[in-house]
Amino acid sequence: GAGVSQSPSNKVTEKGKDVELRCDPISGHTALYWYRQRLGQGLEFLIYFQGNSAPDKSGLPSDRFSAERTGESVSTLTIQRTQQEDSAVYLCASRAGTAHYGYTFGSGTRLTVV
Amino acid sequence: GDSVTQMEGPVTLSEEAFLTINCTYTATGYPSLFWYVQYPGEGLQLLLKATKADDKGSNKGFEATYRKETTSFHLEKGSVQVSDSAVYFCALRTPSNDYKLSFGAGTTVTVRA
Predict the structure, then answer these.
(1) Would the pLDDT of A64 be above 70?
(2) Which of residues 83-112 of A touch B (CB under 8 A)?
(3) Would you give per-residue pLDDT tens digits along chain B (113 residues)?
(4) Strands B102-103, B75-77: parallel, antiparallel or unpaired by DSSP?
(5) The pLDDT value given to residue A101
(6) Which residues of B touch A50 (CB under 8 A)?
(7) Whole-number pLDDT of residue A70
(8) CA separation (Å) from B108 to A8, A98, B32, B84?
């Protein structure tokens, strides 16, 4: 597509439930990132996918968080047993191959855990 | 570790006022520096960048100069418009982590007519 698409745009869930967030990157973009933005804070790196290489999961805050990506297409970020501190905007970005600057961000998913 | 510190917002200005958003950084080596902007309801977009000391990035009337001696990359615009209302993020990328961006907390700017 023309841009990075994320769904849902808003999600309210009860504490303890699992949630799945989706990211559709720009077609042909081999690199995909997930970031988290808590209220009043900067973007926090979560995970990075590059082609068929092993992902960099160093930013995932706990084992409740996981992400998958099939090839160079859609990615899903799953949060199990959600906690109130998981409330944040989750942003996805993609970029082409080795380009260092060409991030394109989606509009994000605002997750609220009640 | 690498980090970026931005001036806290929110910032409220009148049209045609001068805007400065301060950004300082801590990094290993020589980072590349960026300003991203997020307009209401949209994703982050790259506004401008600078890759080495004394470089000036510019776009849409905004400018920022990479100052190695003060480890700063302050964003400026001489005459803001209502359409500049957005959240602005300073970010850096270092050679040791060349695929990751480290972001500041963001500064919300509101320009009133």
Answers:
(1) yes
(2) 91, 93, 100-101, 103-108
(3) 789 999 888 999 999 999 999 999 999 888 999 999 999 888 889 999 999 999 999 999 999 999 999 999 999 999 999 999 999 999 998 877 767 888 998 999 999 99
(4) unpaired
(5) 56
(6) 99
(7) 84
(8) 24, 31, 23, 10
Nearest chain B residue to A58, by CA: B100
Residues A38, B107, B60, B97: is their CA dihedral positive or negative?
A: negative
**Chain B residues with at least one Cβ partner in A under 8 Å:** 4, 6, 32, 34, 36, 38, 41-46, 49, 89, 91, 93, 98-106
CA distance A91 to A38: 11
Please say whether the beta carbons of A88 and A111 come within 8 A.
yes
- For the stretch A5-14, pLDDT in tens is 999 999 999 9
Return the CA Rg of chain B: 14
Q: 3-state DSSP call for residue B79?
A: coil
The pair of three-digit structure tokens given for residue A6, joined into one six-digit string: 């994320």
Cβ-based contacts of B7 with chain A (< 8 Å)? none
Burial of A2: CB neighbours in 10 Å, binned 0-12, 13-18, 19+: exposed
Whether the Cβ atoms of residue B50 and residue B57 lie closer than 8 Å to each other: yes
pLDDT, tens digit, for every residue of A71-100? Answer: 888 999 999 999 999 999 999 999 886 655
Task: State how beta strands B11-14 and B32-38 pair.
Answer: unpaired
Task: Give Rg (Cα) of chain A.
Answer: 13
